[in-house]
Amino acid sequence: MAAAVSDILRMTFSLLLLMLLTFCMKSIKLEAQAGLLVSDEADALREIATQVGKMDWNNKVDPCSNETSWVTPTSSQRPMFDNKVVCNCSFPGGVCHIVAIFLKGQDLAGSLPKSIVKLPYLKNLDLWANYLSGTIPPEWANMKLEILSVAVNRLTGPIPSYLGNITTLRYLNIQNNMFSGTVPPELGNLINLENITLSANNLTGELPLALANLTKLKELRLSSNNFIGRIPDFIQSWKQLDKLEIQAGGFSGPIPSNISLLTDQYAVHINCGGPETTIGKTIYEADDEPGGATKYVPKREVWQLSTTGHVWDVPPTEDDYIAQNNSILRMSNSQLYTNARLTPLSLTYHVRCLVNGNYTVKLHFAEIVMRGNRSFCSLGRRIFDVYIQDKVVLKDFDIVRRHKGQIKAATNDFDPVNKLGEGGFGSVFKGVLSDGTVIAVKQLAAKSKQGNREFVNEIGMISALQHPHLVRLYGCCIEGKQLLLVYEYMENNSLANVLYGKKEDQRMLNWRTRQRICVGIAKGLAFLHEESALKIVHRDIKATNVLLDGDMNAKISDFGMAKLDEEDNTHITTRVAEL
Questions:
Q1: Residue 216 annotated in ligand binding
Q2: Cβ contacts of residue 476 below 8 Å, gap of 6+?
Q3: Cβ distance 106 to 78 under 8 Å?
Q4: What Pfam families does this protein map onto (predicted)?
Q5: Which of 21, 53, 124, 125 is the most exposed place for a label (fewest CB within 10 A)?
Q6: How many CB atoms lie within 10 A of CB 209?
Q7: Secondary-structure percent of the chain, ordered helix, strand, coil, rounded to 5
Q8: Which residues, at least 6 apart from 243, have a Cβ–Cβ distance to it below 8 Å?
Q9: DSSP string, 492-526
Q10: First CA to last CA distance, the chain
Q11: Cβ distance 30 to 53 under 8 Å?
């Protein structure tokens, strides 16, 4: 009996050992397959290669290995060539699935591969610029593609209605083939479609009403076909559409009035001399080509630019005709005024494919100061003509005169009602710019050498300084004998005005506020004397030259009497005491 029990235990142990070994072998096998493409999809790739005529895939290595036959590096010598199989290896168990195939510019002469349907995780298929023939296989109707491009091939027949079953599509491009017949209404089922290009085929008939369902559409290209009838009214349902190409599409009749519901359809915004930047919802396109004395630059299909003239201080060996403003700009949308294109004779923007109609052209100007001498204001004349469609719309346009016009408008032509105060060298006026910015304009007369010297001194000193307790200078303007300085506006005027000005201007200041004002003045002076890169002695500190903002913070102003302190060993160190 004991022997029988022993035999049973021995057999049970052997069985458990066998099961354990089997489990370990399976684990080892699964571990070996982790990170590799599943075999069914590898087999499908071999079938696809046969169907399209792809001969250089190396089936001896895993397609997800990034080996060069599966992923060919891009080259500037062949910009239209793309050979790439993209895998996603983040699935459970570490197995890989194919999610994208790019076979662009490969000279493939087969047919569209039916076996693509055996890649259930495929999202992106691009077979652009080959010699593939036939039509789109019906097997593709069951796929979950998001991006499909079979453009620039030799595909024929009608556009298959079963394309409407691939409702996951966001991008569809079948341009430059030989598709014929009408556009099937089933394409209206592609409610996630954002971009559809049917250009350069032999398509006929009217566009089906079902296309009105494509409410997410952003780009539609139908040019170079043989459509009939008018541009459909349902175009107004495409609220997000921002690109529409229908030239040589065969449409007739007037452009529907409701096409005006499209926004920014005929607008071009360019940041002259600068990079691409976004202001609000408007994208200003980059115009940062270095340029030259005589240059034509085809920036994009829709616009180009040309320049003429040599800038005297740009060496002939350099082709950088873009100026950079290195000062701090505090106006709104300052990105548009940081760079400028240098072109002393002419600057022309050529905008193509504009339909007939009236256009609004907005030009933005800003001064980038070139300090050619000690006056800090040697800018020369900036007077030119503005042409639109070869017609002069602005003759002898003068930036300086127009800028002064803006200041006059802001101050209501220096209305006495807007006067904030008056000093020995001029008056200060309150102004409001067109964008709502409140400013203070200091008006100086340059009849005396002293007034002229104060103006130049103020620009030279304060333009180089930035500190919370120094008043900010926004800019300057010269018109004839009129000198203007534009500052930030200080709501509570000057300390003198608050302490002993008109009764309605006086304020009751508690000791905490008085302390804060004194400390603010001290911090401003400490910055001027010790902390600034330029050591400056103000020489005219008094209550009228201490301005107060809305929170009663002190800011030092009026640097007309200031001078640089260049005597390193004779000045007194200024420090702010902790109170």
A1: no
A2: 377, 455, 459, 483, 484, 485, 486
A3: no
A4: LRR_1, Malectin, PK_Tyr_Ser-Thr
A5: 21
A6: 12
A7: 25, 25, 50
A8: 218, 219, 220, 221
A9: T-BHHHHHHS-TTT-----HHHHHHHHHHHHHHHH
A10: 101
A11: no
Half-sphere exposure of 8 (CA within 13 A, CB side): 5
Amino acid at 298: P
CA 338 to chain centroid: 15
- The average pLDDT across 20-33 equals 39
Token pair of 342 as six digits: 């240098």
The amino acid sitting at 278 is T
Tokens standing for 175?
Answer: 């341009």
Range with the poorest average pLDDT among 117-126, 276-285, 344-353, 429-438? 344-353
**378: its two tokens:** 């040697």
What does CATH list as the number for 407-564? 1.10.510.10
Spatial distance between the Cα atoms of 299 and 274, rounded to a whole number of angstroms: 13
Q: Is-catalytic flag, 264? A: no
Convert the pLDDT of each residue in 361-394 to its tens digit. 777 766 554 443 433 344 455 677 887 777 888 8
Question: Where do the DSSP E strands lie in 105-249?
Answer: 124-126, 133-134, 147-149, 154-158, 171-173, 178-181, 195-197, 202-205, 219-221, 226-227, 243-245
Compute how many other C-beta atoms are within 10 angstroms of the C-beta atom of residue 470.
23
d(CA 167, CA 192): 7
The domain ranges of the chain are 39-261, 270-368, 407-564
Q: Which two tokens stand for residue 271?
A: 């940041």
CATH topology of domain 39-261: 3.80.10
> How many helices, marked H, and strands, marked E, lie in the chain?
6, 32
Find, among 349, 353, 351, the residue nearest to 289 by Cα: 349
Measured CA to CA, the distance from residue 7 to residue 131 in angstroms comes to 73
Enter the tokens of residue 250: 């065969």
Strands of the sheet with 282-287, listed across from one edge: 270-272, 282-287, 277-279
Residue range 124-154, pLDDT digits in tens: 999 999 999 999 999 999 999 999 999 999 9
Q: What is Dmax (Cα atoms) for the chain?
A: 132
357: left (phi over 0), alpha (psi -120 to 50) or beta: left
Residue given tokens 């022993």 in the structure block: 6
Q: Does residue 17 have a pLDDT over 90?
A: no
Supply 153's token pair.
């091939």
Encoding tokens for residue 338?
Answer: 């940081």
Tell me how far apart the alpha carbons of residues 347 and 280 are, in angstroms, rounded to a whole number. Answer: 27
